[in-house]
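Supplementary notes for students who missed Thursday's class. We covered one full example, reproduced here. Read the sequence, then the structure, then the short commentary at the end.
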Amino acid sequence: MSITVNAIERKDQGKGASRRLRKEEKVPSIIYGGKAAPKMISLSIHEITHLLEDENTFTSVLDLVVGKETDSVVLKDIQRHPAKNVVTHIDFLRVDAKQTLVTTTPLHFIGVEENEALRLGNMLNQFVVSVEISCLPKDLPHGIDVDVTKLEIGDHLSLTDLVLPEGVVITSLQHEDIEAHDQTVCSVSEPKIIEEEEEEVIEGEEGSEDGDADQADESEGSNNDGDDTE
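Structure (token representation):
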């Protein structure tokens, strides 16, 4: 099922124009890439916010409709307001069905509930949560599954252990020295136990505290006598 994004072409550029669009509940955006020239567009803040709630929007080839034209694109960059977490700008990259696409896709860890070691309270350490991949647009996956069902304590999975969808490759493993660019994706280990060290009370210090308290009492009594005299 394709995802459609509706947009309107815009002519005005600059910070002032962008601020006016945001006041009108629109998001300034741009389409670039391919043989066509970059195109400035605007999106409905409500529509794009709704679409971004679906994880598949980030990992799909989208149909971007501007007037009577439709471009096949992927999300390239999303900017958000640092305090309000509101989308302030989006970059779309045109894709060609016949050209390889380089993008990032998430890792989905499956089999956690079925893993016996994890059910006994051990930890799954996730060191990599997304990877850069290369594929044709038609082969773009919504994510890569990492099956941890059979991992035991001390076991780990690396990038080279991942089962990739057909037509998908991990870009970092395309170097001649694969081992040098391989990474540990996850591992299973025993939980870390934080031992609380008991504070030892030194008798000498305790006696010193008592002595200070006695001196304070004597000093306070002396002050009270002086007050009574007055």
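Commentary. Helices lie at 15-23, 45-52, 116-119, 178-181, 203-229. Residues 215-230 have pLDDT under 50 and may be disordered. If anything here is unclear, bring it to office hours.
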